[in-house]
C-alpha cells in the first residue's frame, strides 16, 4: 500500500508539474551560459574535497576552471568520468599533493594549469594518460626538482611553464624535456638556476622560446650548439650574468634577446657574440652615456636597417641632435620609456630617421612640451606616446614638426592647460588620448585641425562645461569619451559638428537632465550612450522623452544616478529608442515602475535593474509585455516580494534570469514555464520557504535538464539552517491527494474488472435496478403504494404479442366476461398514450393487485416481459406481497428455464398454473378447473399470509398440472406462504 501510494504520489506530481523545460544545477560549479554542457567555472567555493566539485558534472564537459578554492589534495581517478575534458585549470587552490592517477582517462586534455599552488613534488607517472596535452603550467609552486621521466608521455606538449619555483638543476630539466619533439616554449623564470650546464642531452629542436629571467645565472655553461635553435631568449634580471658567459655560445638564430638588468657589457657582448645586433633588446643595458649610445649605433651600422630599437630603462637623461646619427635606419619604433628624459627637444634626435613610425617616451620626467614650429619636419612618425610623465603644459605648435601623427597619447599626466594651438597641424590625427589629466576647459579652436579624428578620449579631467562649437571640426569622430569629468551642462551648440558620432561616454559627470536637443547632430549615428553616475533626476511624470531622435541607439547606461537616483520615470521616457538592445538601469532608487515604462523598447535584449527601486516590492503586470526579444534580465537586490506569470509571462526569448537578493518566498512554476528559452536561473540569497508553497518549484529545479539553477544544492531553508531547499520533505504536501488517487484508481480498476461479469450474469438485475431507481426517484412508487388498497385493476396481464390470441380468446372472456367481477390491465388497451413505456409498466404492476405472467417460449425471449416479471417478483420477494401468478401456456423444460434465475426462484417458492393440453381426456373439464383455480388465486389478498390464515378465509390454493396436464395437484410445500 505504501509503495503504491508513493508511486501514485510521484505520478501525481509529474502530472501537476508538466513542463517542456527542466532545470538542473551543480553543487559547486556554474555552467557558462550557452556552452551547452561544455564549460564550467568552480570559483571561490568552500568545499575541500575535489569530488564535491566534479562528481555531478556531465561527461560532455570540455573546459573546467577550479580556481581560488581550498583544495589540498587531488586523489586518484578524480576526473575519470570526464573523458572529453580539454582544458583544466586548478590554479590558486592551495594544492599540496596530487596522486599519480589523478588525471587518469583524460586522453583529450590539451591544457592543464596547476599554477599558484603549494606543490613541492610530482609523481613520475602523474601525466602518463595525457596523450594530447599541449600546454602545461606549473608556475608559482614549490618544486625543487623534477623526476627525469615526468614528461616522457607528453609527446604533443608545446608549452611548459615552470616559472617561480625553486628549481636549481637545469640538467635534470633538460633531461626531462629532451624527448618533447613539439615543445616550443619553456619558461623557467624566477627559479634558482645558476647555470645551463647539462649532460650530453640536447634541447628539442622545436624549442624556439626560452625564458630564463630572474634566476641566479652567472654563466651559461652550455655547449656551442645547445641554444642553436632558440629564437627568443630572455636572460633579463640575472645580475651575476657577465659578458664572458656568452663566449662560444651559438646565438645565430636568436631574433629577440633580452639582457635587461644583467652584468653584460653590451658593446663587448656584441663584439664576441654571433647574435644579430638588431635582434637585441637594449633596454636596461646601462647605455645612459650618450657616448656609449653612439658607439652602439656604430656597431649596429653593420645592418642597413633595424625594425625596432628599445632603449628603455637606461637612465638616459638627454639626447642631443647627433645622438642617433650613426644608427641604422629604424623602420619600426624607438622605445625610450622608463628613462630620465626631461626634454625631448622636439625630437631633434630623430632628424635622420626617415622611416621611423613610432616613438615611445612613457615613464620619463617630462614636464612640458615646447613649441616646435621652426624645427625639422619629421614626416614618417605616426605614433607618439608621452604617458606617465609629469607634463603640465602643452605649448602651441608642440607637434607642428610631426604633421603625420595618427595616434597621440598624452594621457596619465598632469596637463592643466592645453593651448588652443597645441594640436595645430595634426590634420592626420585619428586617435587622441588626453584622459587622466587636469584639463578644465576646451575651446572651439582646440580641435579645429583634427578633421580626421575618430577617437577622442578626455576621460577623468576636470571639465565642467562644453562650450558652443567645441567639436565643430570633428565630423569624422566616432568615439567621444567625456566620462569622469564635472560637466554640469552642455551649451546648445556644444555638440555641433559630431555628424559621425557612434559612441558617446558621459558617465561620472554632474548632468542633471537629458536634453534631446543636444543629440540632433548625431541622431542617425549614435549607437552607445553612457550616462552612468550623473545627477539626472525627475520629480514629475510628465516630461518629454529625451531620446526621441535616437532611433539608432543600441546601448544605453542610466544606472547609479547620484545621490538619489532617477526617483521618478516620466511617462514614455524611452520613446524613440526603437533599436535599443542593452539598457543599464541599476541603482536608481525609483519609487514606482509604471507597467508601460518599457513599452517602446521592443528590440531590447539585455536589461539590468539591480537595486533600481525603493519600496517597489511588486512589479506591475505587463511590465515586460513588449520585451519578446529580451534574452538577459538581471533583477538583483530589488526586494521583489512577488514573482508572477502576469509580470514575467511575455519573456518568451529570455535565456538568463538573475534574481539574487530579492524577497520572494515562493516562485510559481507556471511563471517559469512561460519562459521556454530559459537556460540560466540565479536565485541565490532569495528566502524561498521550504513549505508546500514551493513543493512544485523544488520538483521543477531538481528534475529539469535544460535550465541551470545556480548553486541549487547550497540554497538554504530560511528557518532551518541544517536543511536545503532541494531536498526538504514534500510528502506531506501530497499525502491526501495520494490516498484519494489510490482509492479512485482502485475503484476504477475494480469497476473495469467486475463490469463484464455483472453484465453477463446480472444484466437484467442491473437494468431492473435502473428502472426501479428511476421510478423511485419520480416518487411514482410511493404514490402507488399509498393507493394500494384502492387498486385500479385486479390483475395486470404480462404476455408476449405472439400469445395475444390466447389472451383475447381465452383469458379475457373468462376473467372479464359477463358476470365476472375482475378488471384486467392490458398493455394494448390500458397503457397511457405518449407516456414512457417503463412508467406505464410500473404503473400497471403497482396499480394492480396481481400480475399474471402468461409464460411461453416467446415470453422468455422478450425483454419487456422480463422487466414485467422482475417488477412483480420484486413485490413478491422484497415487499412480501403475494401479487405474482404464473401461467404456462406450454411445457418448458428445466434446462431452458435454468437461465431465468428470477423465474426459477418464483417457481421454487410458489406453485403455478399450466394451460391444459388439447389431448387431455376431458379438455373442457380441465379448462374449467384451470379458470376456477385462477379466479380463486386472484381473490387472495396481496399481503402474504400463512396457509392456515388462507384456509380460514376459504382461499383456494392453486396448484400445478400433472405431467399430462389433465389433473390438478396441490403442492403445499411449493406454495409460497410468507410468515
TrEMBL record:
Q: Which GO terms describe its biological process?
A: inflammatory response; innate immune response; toll-like receptor signaling pathway
Gene Ontology CC annotation, any one: plasma membrane
The primary location reported for this protein is membrane
Transmembrane parts of this sequence = 740-764
Coiled-coil zones: none
Query: What is this protein's name?
Result: Toll-like receptor 21
- Bilayer topology: Single-pass type I membrane protein
Q: Which family does it belong to?
A: Belongs to the Toll-like receptor family.
Concerning Pfam families, the annotation shows: LRR_14 (PF23598), LRR_8 (PF13855), TIR (PF01582)
From the broadest rank down, the organism's phylogenetic lineage runs: Eukaryota, Metazoa, Chordata, Craniata, Vertebrata
Q: Which keywords are on file for this protein?
A: Glycoprotein, Immunity, Inflammatory response, Innate immunity, Leucine-rich repeat, Membrane, Receptor, Repeat, Signal, Transmembrane, Transmembrane helix
Q: Which organism is it from?
A: Xyrichtys novacula (Pearly razorfish)
Residue ranges occupied by any TIR domain in the UniProt entry: 791-938
Q: Where is this region: Disordered?
A: 941-963
Amino acid at each position: 500500500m505504501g509503495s503504491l501510494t508513493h508511486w501514485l504520489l510521484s505520478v501525481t506530481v509529474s502530472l501537476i508539474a508538466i513542463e517542456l523545460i527542466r532545470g538542473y544545477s551543480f553543487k559547486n560549479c556554474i555552467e557558462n551560459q550557452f556552452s551547452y554542457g561544455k564549460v564550467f567555472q568552480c570559483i571561490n567555493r568552500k568545499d575541500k574535497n575535489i569530488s564535491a566539485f566534479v562528481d555531478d558534472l556531465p561527461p560532455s564537459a570540455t573546459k573546467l576552471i577550479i580556481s581560488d578554492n581550498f583544495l589540498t589534495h587531488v586523489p586518484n581517478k578524480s576526473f575519470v568520468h570526464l573523458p572529453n575534458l580539454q582544458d583544466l585549470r586548478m590554479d590558486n587552490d592551495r594544492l599540496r599533493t596530487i596522486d599519480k592517477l589523478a588525471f587518469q582517462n583524460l586522453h583529450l586534455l590539451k591544457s592543464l594549469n596547476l599554477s599558484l599552488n603549494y606543490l613541492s613534488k610530482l609523481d613520475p607517472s602523474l601525466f602518463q594518460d595525457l596523450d594530447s596535452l599541449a600546454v602545461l603550467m606549473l608556475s608559482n609552486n614549490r618544486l625543487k626538482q623534477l623526476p627525469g621521466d615526468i614528461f616522457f608521455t607528453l609527446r604533443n606538449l608545446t608549452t611548459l611553464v615552470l616559472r617561480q619555483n625553486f628549481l636549481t638543476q637545469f640538467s635534470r630539466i633538460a633531461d626531462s624535456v629532451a624527448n618533447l619533439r613539439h615543445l616550443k616554449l619553456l619558461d623557467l623564470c624566477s627559479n634558482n638556476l645558476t647555470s645551463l650546464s647539462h649532460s650530453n642531452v640536447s634541447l628539442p629542436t622545436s624549442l624556439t622560446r626560452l625564458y630564463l629571467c630572474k634566476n641566479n645565472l652567472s654563466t651559461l655553461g652550455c655547449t656551442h650548439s645547445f641554444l642553436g635553435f632558440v629564437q627568443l631568449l630572455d636572460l633579463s634580471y640575472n645580475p651575476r650574468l657577465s659578458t664572458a658567459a656568452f663566449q662560444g655560445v651559438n646565438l645565430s638564430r636568436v631574433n629577440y634577446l633580452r639582457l635587461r638588468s644583467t652584468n653584460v657589457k653590451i658593446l663587448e657582448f656584441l663584439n664576441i657574440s654571433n647574435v644579430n645586433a638588431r635582434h637585441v633588446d637594449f633596454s636596461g643595458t646601462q647605455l645612459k652615456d650618450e657616448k656609449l649610445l653612439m658607439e652602439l649605433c656604430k656597431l649596429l651600422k653593420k645592418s642597413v636597417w633595424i625594425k625596432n630599437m628599445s632603449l628603455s630603462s637606461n637612465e638616459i637623461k638627454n639626447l642631443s641632435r647627433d645622438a642617433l646619427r650613426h644608427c641604422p635606419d629604424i623602420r619600426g619604433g624607438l622605445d625610450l620609456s622608463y628613462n630620465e628624459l626631461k626634454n625631448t627637444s622636439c625630437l631633434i634626435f630623430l632628424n635622420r630617421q626617415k622611416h621611423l613610425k613610432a616613438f615611445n617616451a612613457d615613464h620619463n620626467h617630462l614636464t612640458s612640451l615646447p613649441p616646435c614650429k621652426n624645427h625639422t619636419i619629421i614626416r614618417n612618425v605616426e605614433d607618439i606616446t608621452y604617458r606617465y610623465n609629469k607634463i603640465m603644459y602643452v605649448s602651441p605648435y608642440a607637434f607642428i614638426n610631426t604633421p603625420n601623427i595618427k595616434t597621440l597619447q598624452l594621457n596619465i599626466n598632469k596637463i592643466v592647460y592645453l593651448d588652443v594651438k597645441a594640436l595645430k597641424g595634426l590634420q592626420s590625427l585619428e586617435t587622441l588620448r588626453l584622459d587622466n589629466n587636469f584639463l578644465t576647459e576646451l575651446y572651439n579652436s582646440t580641435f579645429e585641425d583634427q578633421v580626421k579624428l575618430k577617437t577622442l578620449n578626455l576621460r577623468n579631467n576636470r571639465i565642467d562645461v562644453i562650450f558652443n562649437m567645441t567639436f565643430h571640426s570633428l565630423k569624422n569622430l566616432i568615439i567621444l569619451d567625456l566620462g569622469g569629468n564635472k560637466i554640469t551642462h552642455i551649451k546648445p551648440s556644444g555638440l555641433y559638428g559630431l555628424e559621425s558620432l557612434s559612441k558617446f561616454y558621459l558617465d561620472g559627470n554632474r548632468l542633471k537632465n537629458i536634453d534631446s536637443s543636444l543629440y540632433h547632430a548625431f541622431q542617425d549615428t549614435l549607437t552607445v550612450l553612457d550616462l552612468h553616475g550623473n545627477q539626472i533626476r525627475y520629480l514629475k511624470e510628465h516630461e518629454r522623452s529625451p531620446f526621441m531622435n535616437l532611433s539608432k541607439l543600441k546601448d544605453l547606461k542610466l544606472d547609479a544616478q547620484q545621490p538619489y537616483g532617477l526617483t521618478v520615470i516620466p511617462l514614455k521616457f524611452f520613446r524613440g529608442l526603437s533599436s535599443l538592445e542593452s539598457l543599464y538601469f541599476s541603482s536608481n532608487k525609483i519609487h514606482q515602475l509604471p507597467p508601460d515604462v518599457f513599452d517602446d523598447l521592443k528590440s531590447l535584449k539585455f536589461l539590468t535593474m539591480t537595486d533600481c527601486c525603493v519600496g517597489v516590492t511588486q512589479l506591475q503586470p505587463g511590465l515586460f509585455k513588449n520585451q519578446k526579444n529580451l534574452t538577459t534580465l538581471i533583477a538583483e537586490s530589488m526586494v521583489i516580494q512577488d514573482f508572477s506569470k502576469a509580470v514575467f509571462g511575455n519573456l518568451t526569448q529570455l535565456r538568463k534570469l538573475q534574481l539574487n537578493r530579492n524577497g520572494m518566498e515562493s516562485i510559481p512554476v507556471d511563471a517559469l514555464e512561460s519562459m521556454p528559452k530559459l537556460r540560466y536561473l540565479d536565485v541565490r540569497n532569495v528566502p524561498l520557504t521550504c513549505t508546500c508553497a514551493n513543493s512544485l518549484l523544488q520538483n521543477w529545479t531538481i528534475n529539469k535538464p535544460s535550465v541551470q539553477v545556480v548553486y541549487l544544492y547550497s540554497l538554504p531553508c530560511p528557518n532551518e539552517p541544517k536543511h536545503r531547499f532541494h531536498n526538504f520533505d514534500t510528502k506531506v504536501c501530497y499525502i491526501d491527494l495520494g490516498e484519494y488517487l489510490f482509492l479512485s484508481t482502485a475503484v476504477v480498476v475494480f469497476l473495469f474488472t467486475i463490469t463484464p461479469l455483472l453484465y453477463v450474469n446480472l444484466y437484467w438485475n442491473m437494468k431492473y435496478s435502473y428502472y426501479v431507481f428511476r421510478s423511485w426517484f419520480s416518487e411514482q412508487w410511493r404514490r402507488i403504494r399509498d393507493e394500494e388498497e384502492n387498486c385500479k385493476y385486479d390483475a395486470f396481464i404480462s404476455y408476449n404479442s405472439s400469445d395475444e390470441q390466447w389472451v383475447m380468446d381465452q383469458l379475457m372472456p373468462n376473467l372479464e366476461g359477463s358476470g365476472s367481477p375482475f378488471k384486467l390491465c392490458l398493455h394494448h388497451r390500458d397503457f397511457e398514450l405518449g407516456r414512457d413505456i417503463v412508467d406505464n409498466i410500473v404503473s400497471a404492476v403497482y396499480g394492480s393487485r396481481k400480475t399474471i405472467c402468461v409464460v411461453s417460449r416467446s415470453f422468455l425471449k422478450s425483454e419487456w416481459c422480463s422487466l414485467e416479471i422482475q417488477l412483480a417478483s420484486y413485490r413478491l420477494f422484497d415487499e412480501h406481497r403475494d401479487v405474482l401468478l404464473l401461467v404456462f401456456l406450454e411445457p418448458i423444460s428445466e434446462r431452458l428455464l435454468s437461465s431465468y434465475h428470477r423465474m426459477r426462484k418464483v417457481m421454487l417458492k410458489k406453485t403455478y398454473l399450466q394451460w391444459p393440453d388439447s389431448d387431455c381426456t376431458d379438455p373442457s373439464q380441465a379448462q374449467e378447473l384451470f379458470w376456477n383455480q385462477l379466479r380463486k388465486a386472484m381473490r387472495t389478498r396481496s399481503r402474504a399470509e400463512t396457509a392456515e390464515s388462507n384456509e380460514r378465509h376459504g382461499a383456494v390454493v392453486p396448484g400445478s398440472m400433472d405431467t399430462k396436464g389433465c389433473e390438478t395437484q396441490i403442492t403445499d410445500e411449493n406454495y409460497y406462504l410468507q410468515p
